[in-house]
Design a protein that fits this description.
elongated; 9 helices; mainly alpha
């Protein structure tokens, strides 16, 4: 797999080309080995293999695509923060640090993906001397599936923390800092949208079969991770944005009041111009309350959340149509 190193030069179709090809290649492998043969009615084992082949192939490409876009967004956000801090020359240094963290996460994700695959095989009774070819290929392709999923989870939380802890302290407490917090908030919101979008694909695994306990645990763990490492930081960022906004507005109001007092005492037109500038800045700062979550962000979040029940409805409709074909 080819991973981006925090570059914002590849956008659009190029970011999704390799992930799409990966999903198609995985589906082709499963088709050739027999995992995608249409399962007979009541054959739970074959149905599970069929669902896993489609679900893991789709999610492997989705997580890779989301990971590439995430890193491009991080690079763009990092540039915008450094411009406001007047430290654009530090971009290469920060990118190298992010890349170093990424390499550590690759190693950790690989170890964990192998461990999870082994545990899942033991739990599902897939460890035996003789296995069909398609089962062996499903087990083998489960490793890159878990690898890319874990890497996505690691990256979506660590990048936000890096920008907050290593870049934000260099930005002065003014409108630039509010803009920077808003940019990180937007990045966190986008990451949340990627994560919620993945939840809409999970129902594929349970087509025409009951949901096993281990699958419930996996999806619950993924959802809890999204809530803890994505939505909570986004909420905290918004609170931080509002707190700093109120602090700056209070300071401006005090400065304006002092300027009005000085203007009344000295009758100096220079104080009047300063007051006008401060009033203009106050109006600009007040508008950030509405930029924290833009209408576009709200629409995207609502659309992704809506996809989850819609995906379950599609699953139920598909099962109903399949049931009709047998009668």
């Amino acid at each position: 797999m080819k991973f981006s190193s925090y570059s914002n030069t590849d956008r659009g179709s190029s970011a999704g080309l390799f992930p799409l090809l990966t999903s198609l290649v995985l589906l082709m492998i499963h088709f050739l080995t027999g995992a995608l043969d249409w399962p007979a009615a009541g054959d739970i084992r074959a149905q599970r293999d069929f669902n896993s082949a489609i679900g893991m192939s789709a999610l492997t490409g989705y997580f890779w695509f989301a990971l590439r876009l995430m890193q491009q967004n991080v690079a763009s956000t990092l540039v915008s923060l450094l411009v406001r801090a007047n430290r654009l020359s530090h971009f290469t240094s920060h990118r190298d640090k992010l890349t170093a963290h990424f390499k550590h996460q690759i190693f950790n994700a690989m170890i964990l993906s192998i461990m999870i695959t082994v545990v899942y095989c033991v739990f599902e009774g897939l460890i035996s001397v003789k296995q069909e070819l398609h089962v062996l290929m499903l087990t083998a392709t489960a490793v890159p599936f878990w690898f890319i999923a874990l890497l996505f989870l690691f990256q979506m939380s660590s990048n936000i923390n890096y920008l907050k802890n290593n870049v934000m302290p260099s930005i002065e407490a003014n409108s630039d800092r509010l803009n920077s917090l808003s940019a990180i908030l937007s990045l966190g919101t986008t990451n949340s949208i990627f994560a919620v979008g993945a939840l809409a694909i999970f129902p594929i695994f349970w087509l025409k079969k009951d949901i096993p306990i281990i699958d419930v645990l996996v999806v619950s763990s993924f959802t809890a991770t999204v809530l803890i490492f994505l939505f909570l930081p986004v909420i905290k960022l918004r609170r931080s944005l509002e707190s700093e906004q109120n602090k700056l507005l209070n300071e401006l109001e005090n400065d304006i009041a002092e300027g009005i007092r000085q203007c009344a005492l000295d009758n100096d037109s220079g104080f009047g111009k300063n007051i006008e500038q401060m009033e203009s800045e106050k109006e600009t700062l007040s508008s950030y309350r509405f930029r924290a979550f833009s209408p576009r962000d709200k629409a995207r979040i609502a659309a992704c959340i809506t996809l989850i029940p819609v995906s379950w409805l599609v699953l139920l409709l598909t099962e109903w149509l399949i049931h009709l074909t047998y009668y």
